[in-house]
Structure formats: C-alpha cells, structure tokens
Amino acid sequence: MASKAVYSQRDPMLKKRDDFEDILEERRNSSDLRYALRCYAPVVYKGLCPSKAGTLKSMVLQSDQLHYVIHQVCRETGRAVDDVQEEVSSILEEMAHRLQLSTVRFFAFTLSKVFKTLFRSICVNEEGIQRLQQAIQEHPVVLLPSHRSYMDFLLMSYLLYTYDLALPVIAAGMDFMGMKFVGEMLRMSGAFFIRRSFGGDKLYWAVFSEYVKTMLKNGFAPVEFFLEGTRSRTSKSLTPKLGLLNIVMDPFFKGEVFDVSLVPVSISYERILEESLYARELLGVPKPKESTSGLIKARKVLSEDYGSIHVYFGQPVSVRSLAEGRVNRCQFNLIPRHIPKKPSEDIHSFVNDSAYRLVRAQEENMVLKPWVLLASLLLQNQVSGQKRGIALDELTEQAVWLRDLSRQYGAFLHWPEHTPPSEVVSSSLSLHRGLVRISEGRVQLALGQSYAVTPEEELLSQAVIILSCASYRNQALHVFLRPALLASAIHTASSNKKQEVFNSFSFLRNMFSNEFILCPGTYCMLFTSHWCCVSQDVLVTERGHRTLVFLTSMLDPFLQGYQVVCRFLCEEATEALTEKQFIPAVRKFIIKHLLAGRLRYTEVLSSDLQKNSLAALLRLGAVRKIKGYQGTLKVNTVMVNSLEDTLGKKPAVRNQQCLGSFQNISTLSVFFCLGGKLPTQKAVIARL
Amino acid sequence: MASNSSGGSSDRQRIAQQRLRIIAGHLQRPVDGDSAILAAECKAQGSKPDTSREEKTVPRRRQEIMKWNGWGYSDSRFLFNKKGQAEFTGKRYRLSGMIIPGLKDWFECTFGASLQHKTPATPLLNSSAVQPPTLNEAFVEELKSTGIPFSQDAEDRVFRAHGHCLHEIFALREGKFGRVPDMVVWPNCHNDVVKIVELASKHNVCLIPYGGGTSVSSALECPPEETRSIVSLDTSQMNRILWVDEKNLTAHVEAGIVGQDLERLLNESGYCTGHEPDSMEFSSLGGWVATRASGMKKNIYGNIEDLVVHIKMVTPQGVIEKSCQGPRMSTGPDIHHFIMGSEGTLGVVTEVTMKIRPMPEYQKYGSVVFPNFEQGVACLREVARQRCAPASIRLMDNEQFKFGHALKPQVSSIFTSFLDGLKKFYITKFKGFDPNRLCVATLLFEGDREKVLQHEKQVYDIAAKFGGLAAGEDNGQRGYMLTFVIAYLRDLGMDYYVIGESFETSVPWDRVLDICRNVKARIVRECKERGVQFPPLSTCRVTQTYDAGACVYFYFAFNYRGLSDPVHVYEQVEHAAREEILANGGSLSHHHGVGKLRKEWMRETVSNVGMGMLKSVKDYVDPNNIFGNRNLL
C-alpha cells in the first residue's frame, strides 16, 4: 500500500492518464481584469489555525525549538541572549514572505497578459487539481514542482489562483532577493527567501526549519519548494536535495501532524525561455546575476512563440504511507521534540529514497512533446556524421517509430492523434527554428551559421545549438534510461553470462548515479526478474536491433563524457588542481580534443556532465578532496584509469553498428520487443 | 442533582446519601443459596462483628444477578421501547426507569445505524455447547476432602472464561464458547487459597485467579494451548473487611471484595478508601492490585500502588508478604512491585492492608466548557502545573460532549428545558463557541466545605484564563454517570450492529494533543481502509492529570453492517490504534494492563533486559507455570 502511491500513475497503457484543459483559452475570451479581481475563496486545511503572516513570525520566535537553540548558541559563544534574539529576528525578517492577495491579483493580471503573448496554451490536468483540492483539506500539503525555468513558481501560483486553491508559500533562493523591486513583489506573492548555503549556521537552520514547519503544521498554506534545489539547465532531473524534504517530513515523524501530502508537479515547456542561456551557462559563460534591468532586457523574449506548457499535478503521496514499516517513530519518544537532533540513519535513508521516488514521479508525469523525440533523432543523426542532414520524410518515419517505442516504455507523450505525422513534425520543427535548419527537404541542426573567427569560437557556437538540442532530448531520457543501461551493460559485459551482465549493469548504474535519477536500493532483485524474461526464447527481429542501436546511442555521450574526464584526470591533473579549477581545465582539455577530432560528442563540453562525473569519482574514492588546500583534488590514477577502461570496453568512437555478439543482440531484441506488451515487466524496468 | 445545592440536612448526611445513590445505592439483598457449604468457613480470622454482618453483592452463582453475555446486572439494560425511545431498565441507577429522548437520534446519526436493523444476542446460555470439563481426578478428590466449594457446572465455567473485551462479548452473544475453565473453586479465606495452590502444584493443575471479571485485556481467556485441567479460582467469597485500624487509618481486607462493597462497608463506619475505578461496582481489590489499577479520584487518594500498605499473596513457592506495615521502606526493590501488575501470573492476592480516609465532608461536581479541545488541554496542564487538580478532572472532546448530551434524561419541567435552551444560547451565540468544537471538562471536588469552595474558585479562575466557562454541576455529574453506564450502552449498540470499546494510555503533556488527534484520525482512516461502511465514532478524553503527563482514554465504535468479520476488523483497527499510540509516545497501558491482548508490545516497552527480569521472577516463583493464564510475558 505504502509504496504504490508514487507509481500509481505510472503506466498510461494500463490506466488512461488524466485529460488536460487549457486555461489560457478562457483568458483569451474574458476580461483579465475581472479575472484578477474575482472573488477568491479557496478551501483550506481542516485543522487550520487562522493566522496572518505577522503572527506567524511571532509563533516562530516563541517556539520552544528556537528558544532552545538561542540559548545553546548563547552558551557556546558567550553572546547575550538579546543579541542572539535580535539576529534571529533579522534572519526571520530577511526570510519571511508577506503573502498578500492584492499582489497576487496584480500578478494574475500581468501574467495573464504575458502568458497569452508567450504561450499557445497552458494545459493542466483537472483531475490532479481536484485531487489537490481534496488533499489540501485533509492534511498539510507540500507542492513539489519540477524546476526548469524561472517561470515555474509564478506559474504555479498563477494556476492555484486560477483554480481557487490555497496559494502556496514558496522557498526561493536568496539570489532573487537581489532584484530589488521584483524580490519584494515575489515576497508579497508568497515567496520566502533562503540562503543558498548555511551549512554550519545552527541558528539560521533553526529559524528556517521552524519557519517552514510552523507554516506547514498550522496549515497556513501549502509549502512549495523544488526538490531539485535549482533549475535544471539540462532538462534532466537533478539529484534531489534533502534538506527541505527532511524539514517537511519532520512534523509527521514527531507526531505533530497526522500526515503530510506530497504532491509532485511536472511542468514541461515545449520551448524553454532560458534555452540558449542555459547552454551558454553550461559552456562556461557565467549566469548573469538576477537583476531587474536584466529582466526588462529579456523583454524581447515576449515577441517569440514558446509553444505550450503542460502542467501535471501528480497523485498526492502520503508521507505516512511511505514511512509505514520504514521509520520507527518511537525513536523520538525519549528526547523532548524541540531539541534539534541529527536525523538517524533510517530516517536519512528513508528521506533519501522518498526524494528519489518523488523526482521519479515528476519524471514519469512529465508531458513530452514530439519535438523531444525529434531532438533525440537529430542529435543521433548529427553524430553519425551525416553532414547533409536527414530527409524530412525519413525523419517523420523515424519519429513515428520512436513515438511507438517511447509509448511502449511508458512515456507520457503528447502527440496530436488526429494530425498526420508529417504535420506534427513540421510544426514542431518550425517552433524550434533557431535550432534546426531545413533545406532541400533535408533537416539538420542549425550549426555553423555563426560569424566566428577562431575554430574554438565556432566550436562553442555549435555547442550552444547542440546543448540546447540535447536539453530537449534529455526530457525523454528517463523513459529510455533503464533499458539503455541494460543495453549498454550487455554490450560492455565481457560475455553474455547473466552474472557478467549484471556486474556490468551494476557498474554503470553506480557510475551514473549522480547523472541520472536511479532510485537507490533494490535493483539487484529487479535485474534478476527481468533478466529471466530476457533469456527465454531467442528471437531476432529487425525491430529489436533498431531499438538496441537507439538505446545505446542514447547513453553514449555520457559514457564518452565520463571517459574523457577520467582521461583528463590521468593525463593532465597536476598536484595543485583544485575543485574550482577543475571545470575550466577539463573544458580546455576537451576543446583541444574536440578540435583534434578525437571526440565524437560535442555534448561532453557540458559542465553539468563534468561536474557529475567528478562527483561520481569522488563518491567512488577515485579522487579525493584534500581538506585545507582549497579543495585540492588528489587523483588515484590507477583507479581512474581502470574506471576509464571499464567504461570504454565499448569505445564510444567505434562504429555504432558494430555491436557485440549475435546472441546478445537477439536476447535483447526479445526483451525490447516484448517490452511494451508485458505491463509487469515494464513496471520492473521503470523501477530499476 | 438539584438537591446538591439545596442545603438543609447536614453536609455529612447529604454526602453519604449522595454517594449511596451514585455508586452503591443499587444493591440487592445477597443471594446466598446454599449456606450449607459455608460450614467449612474459615475460623482463623477474627472479624469485627459489625463488618461481618454480610451484605455482599456478588454471589457464588453470578448468573443469579448478572448477564452472561453482556455487562452488569441482568435487570439493567438500555433498550429502545415501542415508541422508539431509549430507556434504561431496572431500579439500580439514577438513570434507571428513565426515558432518554436524545439517544435515538444521536445513535442513528453518529453510526448511521437504524432501529430496523437488529442483531439480537442468543438469549440463553446453551450448556451443551460448552466443552465438557477436563478433570484432574486426583486434584478433585483431594479438593473435596478440604471442603472448599467448587463446581463443574457449564454456566459457572462460562462466566469465568472471559472478561469484557469486545471479541469476548461478541462471541458470547453469538453463543460461541472457546476454551473455558474446567472447574471453579470458591475459597473462603487465605488458608483455603493456600490449600488450593498446594494441591494445584502437587497435581499440576493450571490455576487462573478470577476476581470481578471486568478485565479488558483478554487476561481471563484460557490459553487454548493449555492441556492441563484449568481451575478458575474465584475470590469473590473472600470479601470481608477483617479489621479497621483507626489509629493508623488502615483497613485489612480480603482481596475478593468488590469496590462498591468495600466503599459501602467502610462508609458505614465513616471511612472510605477513595479508590474508585470506573469498574468499581464489579472489580475486586485483588484485581486492582494485580493490574495496577487507577481510580478516578487518584488526585486525592492516589492510585492502587499508593494505597496499599501490605499485600499477602499465595504463590506455588509459598506465601509472600512483608514483615511490618511501615509506611515506606528502603529494603531493596519493593517486592510489592513484583505483585502489582503481575496479572495473575505469579499467584493469588488474598489479603491487602489499605489506607483509609475519613469520608469527605463535602462533595461538589462541576463542569467547564472550553471553546475547543486545545484550550481545554492547556487548562488541564496548567492545573497540573499548579498541582491543584480536584479529586477528579476530566476533559471530554467534542464528540464525547455530544454523546453525554444525548444521554440527558427526559426533563420533567418546562422550566428546566427552557433553562437548558438559554444556556445553550448563551454559550454558542453569545460567547461564540462553535458547537462542533467546544468541549467540556467535568470536575469533582471533595474535602471540607470551605476548602472545596476555595479550591473550586482556584480551578475556575485558571479555566477562565483558557476561555473556559463554568457550565454547572449537572453537566459534571452526568459526565461521571456516563462512565458507569457506558458499558451497558455498548450492549445496546451490539443489538443494532454497532460494536466498540475503549482503550487508554498515558502520555507526556507535550504530546497529549498530538496523540489525541493522531489516534482518532488513525482510527477513522483504518476503518475506511478496512471497508467499514459508516464513519466510526472516534473520540477521546483526558481522564487523569499527573505532574509529567496525562492519562488519555479513547472510545471507538462503528456500525458493522456489510462486514463479514466485524470482530476481526475491530481488532485490526484497535491494533493499529495501539501502534499509533506507541509511535506518538504513549504508553502501552495506563491502568487496563497488558493481559494477552497487548503482550506483543511488552518487549519493546520494557526492553530485553526488563523482559528477562520479569521472566526470571516468574521462573523462580512459579517454575511449573501453575498460574498459567499466560498474561504479560
């Protein structure tokens, strides 16, 4: 009962997913002003203690927890209580939101205007809204949207206002506050600001956690935050941050609330506003500091077409059900609950697992547009060296094939059913004019249009296009990831024995656990269960082969990226390489190799990939951080070398078609052909 | 009720009258059929002439006055009369013979029950359905020679095979009997018990002590796996007050005496023990000791562990007792604490020396209405902090307040109903209390008149700080009456597809609100998940205050129409509720005990070492498991 909640929406083949409704339609037909001024009377939590934003602050200041920490800080530092209390007040002042309906109405009005200009439609699953409405009344609610754009949280509040639901309070990064006027506006629309890092600051942590808990426990408003911590620049889900999740689960562990509902929300943009901004950032052009003037300059985006947005409000997940049989709440019986305590091992691993499952739920419910499939195909095509691109009708044929395949794997694909595929393809392509070029009936990525002087500049400008494109492909990555890992595992394994493949599979899984969302735990069992399916009848089909090629190509850029980072560390890492210098140094190294034609994938220039691979190596102990030397990296060359070798058993540069043994392909073919037809099996893969 | 305030007769007299009315005014003449067997009565004890003048409630044949498949006296029960009005039969209680007009609507609305859908109990005990006794002939032979009365009659045995857990009563109503004792013995005094225990040890017979039979922990259930002959040792005939020591204010009492007799007899000489558990009409002194009982007036008199001065218990190893009656001793771990709470696993408590107090000069009920439960708990906490709790203070939640309201008997005058209406108007309209959130605390003050009034003022002043409004003596008194009739009400519910029970816990102050909310919510949720078709009644009250926490009592009942195995569902929900209690920092039990019902949680409750300690005591005292009810461990 407990674990199923997260996955209940998993399989669109088994259960039809909810229908969407375009909320902009009504906005185009009726007055925005009336809409902004309409009567707003949301349903509230049944245990609500009505309180204003101001009383909230005093509740926090008077809490036992804060008292305890204040006195602890005083004892440790010898500061006066008043002094510390003052600090607490100012922290709280800096943090607290000042939710006002008038500001929300202002946003409702302006955003209506903006959204209508930018987007064709904003589609929301109404059943999700109904479920949310129910959940809000029953228990404190935590909204967990995916984070791909600045737009996300304004959009969330806008939607909740539209549907007459309680407006959330939103944990936002302090960087927003830098934007003078806007920061305050956001504050009044429900944002509260937290510092990006406050690792050791006991006092800050106490104020922050107490503030969030107070709002949650009293049902003041749904609490909203981003599990991923920050916007994903790659459109891949980021590995979840646990701090806030820990805080919102704590009242349940301690019995202060009966339950907490976690609602994963998946927001997918057909075209992301920050598209090329992200790509530049990944290539090392630093992110511009948020400023009001910057926002105004960004006005030119208003003139473009950004397609549609799909927002899917997932099934509320009960923390109580999740924790059943996993967390022994009695552990809080013997110490007063207001004394802060480091979470125990079982709580930590529970929160971690839950976080992964919630991010997986976000992924599962993410609506994919046809363009996402096209991006995947175009990227693969580009890499395979077809300089002239791909013929439009061939692309259409491939897209249709991929559409069917992705659906078999449970993708939540929004493909217009009653439109001819060719139209679907061309309309998708036209929306992304900046990324693709169509000439003489052939389609290819819009590379090489720049007026770059040096080859390096040209490479970087191409990389911007490729990374933008990859970010769309990445939206579909979660659909293919698990089978792709198995495909690569069969490929890299030295033989086709089950144990070998399993070892190889575990290795990849372990290696990439900073890169992708792979739920911790039980994969051994799951591997075994679907391996059995695989190794039954052997049947070779053309289709299985094609699938296999596609899947391995999906993972190849990542394999090569990790390899090249390993090579860099072995060849070029000096004694004095610090963590800070790592990215620029590895980038330089990669550019060199790319220009020399020694690397296939321009994508590996992505600093996200580089960071993840370093994190993986640190985790595996192949690289160590030496403390006290500004984070100098100490490379275990032997280990890194052997990791590179293991990754490179199938050299990524080698021809795609050159696949392993005949039998490998055939077993897999069976598996991949069956994939869509056996729901149980698919569930198994998805959970890997 | 109204007579409370109308002074006239002396306080003392009035209180005596009142007490007799409330608790013990419903006595019958003892029914003692065969006095011939009394020839074997113990002669050892010298009893004071005035206390040996017998007027005892519980006869050997309980069936003569009590129900075999429900709570209490045969003549007292709730029923819906032909007009569909609820009434309470008999003459024993204040409520007896009265019409309760509000009950039907409350019953139907709360449970979705209907008077059309009845589930009547099997009317008669069918002796042939009872397993024939497994007798240990040698034991029986030797027992005969002692002259101690015993019986192998099926009815006698069935009566002693159960307590009052829901599943026990439910099975009886369906005419189903599990393992029952093979015979019943009625020792008359301590020495009889010594003889019985010796014989049982000699012949390897399993003994299960039986006092008042009010257990709600499956403690009296015969372990089905027991293959030896099971003998129920009924202490009910050991019911004398052996002496009263007015200098030290103690009384030495045989352990089989039931609460109402003990109070009544002591009252006659101007004393009381002040120990009044809700079951005091039927529960026995020995049972209180064996389960660590708690009385509603513990704030003045203390719980059972505070009240006993000396205990005599017969074990297979011999008799255990202390050598003196010093009020406190530093002689290693207190051996009384091996006895108290041993739940019949170590031996039989035969005689107890208990503290007694002069009867209070003045008694006054009261009640306070709070706008919500949170405020009410805060008030109780403050009262506990100031250590000024009255003899009893209980806080009922909103559902229970409504329940209590539904039990208001028909008022005789228009004036009273007019006053009621006015009161309601004042509280809900004028003071703005939400009738669906307000809750009520009931109070009982005791002592000399001046101090009671002073005390009352202090408590009401505190209550006012938490938004409480005094709501009259009447409401308070009815609250206490509820505890005596609640068990009868369960039988009424069971006539109409409604089953339920109560359970309790103790919890630190800071967790009281959380535990109440979470356990109630858990019950509702579990019922829903297990297919209960109607929303359950899930309600609680805070019944005792301590320095460091409180005792919380939950009532839980639901309409089981549409369920194939209601008892199983009930048990699952209760199990889940107990898990929830433990997860919220509550104890396994405040005063009901562990029995067999809550055994599974004992280890985590007292730790491995604690379990080992208890086990080693059992192993020494009763190596052959003569006291084989298998409670606790």
TrEMBL record, chain A:
GO terms for biological process: ether lipid biosynthetic process; fatty acid metabolic process; phospholipid biosynthetic process; triglyceride biosynthetic process. Keywords: Acyltransferase, Membrane, Transferase. InterPro entries: GPAT/DHAPAT, GPAT/DHAPAT_C, GPAT/DHAPAT_LPLAT, Plipid/glycerol_acylTrfase. GO terms for cellular component: mitochondrial membrane; peroxisomal membrane. Transmembrane segments: none annotated. Pathway: Phospholipid metabolism. It comes from the Eukaryota. Its main location: membrane. It is found in: Membrane. Residues 141-270 form the Phospholipid/glycerol acyltransferase domain. One of its GO terms (molecular function) is glycerone-phosphate O-acyltransferase activity. Belongs to the GPAT/DAPAT family. This is Glyceronephosphate O-acyltransferase. It comes from Lates calcarifer.
TrEMBL record, chain B:
Signal peptide: none annotated. Residues 177-359 form the FAD-binding PCMH-type domain. FAD binds at residues 209-215, 291-294, 343-349. GO terms for cellular component: peroxisomal membrane. Its main location: membrane. It holds the Pfam family FAD_binding_4. SUPFAM superfamilies: FAD-binding/transporter-associated domain-like (SSF56176), FAD-linked oxidases, C-terminal domain (SSF55103). It is found in: Peroxisome membrane. Keywords: Acetylation, FAD, Flavoprotein, Lipid biosynthesis, Lipid metabolism, Membrane, Peroxisome, Phosphoprotein, Transferase, Transit peptide. It catalyses: 1-hexadecanoylglycerone 3-phosphate + a long-chain fatty acid = a 1-acylglycerone 3-phosphate + hexadecanoate; a long chain fatty alcohol + a 1-acylglycerone 3-phosphate = a 1-O-alkylglycerone 3-phosphate + a long-chain fatty acid + H(+); hexadecan-1-ol + 1-hexadecanoylglycerone 3-phosphate = 1-O-hexadecylglycerone 3-phosphate + hexadecanoate + H(+). Its cofactor is FAD. Pathway: Lipid metabolism; Glycerolipid metabolism; ether lipid biosynthesis. The active site is at Y553 (proton donor/acceptor). PANTHER family: ALKYLDIHYDROXYACETONEPHOSPHATE SYNTHASE, PEROXISOMAL. Belongs to the FAD-binding oxidoreductase/transferase type 4 family. This is Alkylglycerone-phosphate synthase. The gene is AGPS.
